[in-house]
Hints:
CATH architecture of the largest domain: Orthogonal Bundle
CATH superfamily of the largest domain: Intergrase catalytic core
CATH topology of the largest domain: hpI Integrase, Chain A
Helix content: 40-55%
CATH class of the largest domain: Mainly Alpha
Structural class: mainly alpha
Number of helices: 14
Number of strands: 3
Largest sheet: 3 strands, antiparallel
Order of helices and strands: HHHHHHHHEEEHHHHHH
Distance between the termini: 70 Å
Radius of gyration: 25 Å
Number of domains: 2
Amino acid sequence: MRNTIPGLRPDEGMQPPEAPARLMGPKAATRRTAVEKAIDEFLRELERRNASAHTIKAYDNDLTRFAAYVGDRGWKRIDHLQVRGFLSHLCELQLAKTSVARSLAAVRSFYRWLARQGVVEENPALLVSTPKLPKKLPRVPTIEEINAAFDRGVSETSSFPERDQLILELLYGCGIRNSELIAINLDDVGLGSGGILIRGKGKKQRYVPFGESARNTLAAYLRVRQKLLSGSGKMTAGLLINRRGARLTTRSVARIVKSMAIASGLSPAVHPHTLRHAFGTHMLEEGADLRAIQELLGHARLSTTQRYTQLSMKHVLAVYDATHPRAK
């Protein structure tokens, strides 16, 4: 006997699509469709599997759109043509190709889960091709540009220069994600050991080292942080805080990094993930082992880390074209 989701039948919703909710009474408009009920269960399963909040939110947004598009259709009436029509609908809404591709990936994952639950027998999304995306490698600042940014220091307009300098040190010096940066607690930092406990995607943990420059910046920041919290009477577990003593958000970090990039002469398009890309690329250019970089970045698959070989090769080809006599 196949497993089923409580309250759902493989043939549920076989009746023709109902009229739009806005044409029905308020009580009828709140009735959940078979697809919506299954999506709720799927999202709860992602939470049980410790998926990141960002991943769950992305699946929620994409699958909510999908549920709205298919309406009250039953599972057997949702075939690859329906999925393809859903993608066309997203294109009509002028969503970027990357967003359309992500939505298709979400529907595929959703149907894989439905198949494991015994609700469906086939995955119609597998018959739909992923939109072709432009293969663009991110523009990564050179080692010289990064060093120049550190030499210039934090802008005089910064309200918290010790913290902002530390943000730059940790993002580039440790190669961590923005979400990982703001999740660091004071107790996660080992000044003596020179390492930080990082909570990555799926709540996986890893230790990353930091160098002497980051250690000095960290020590200077901790003194100011202690003084600030003592004056406010607040207790905050988060390492990085604002002037009010509250933990920083990813949006605040992005704004700070952009401000520092502009002040340092870097591209205004620089964001926290740019510094993570720079970390991986520069480590590879300086001879670091690819698997060591994978461990430091917290990549689950080596294929993800291998992207940095493309970035590094682009740099090598540029050097070759500029310097080799036969390239001119």
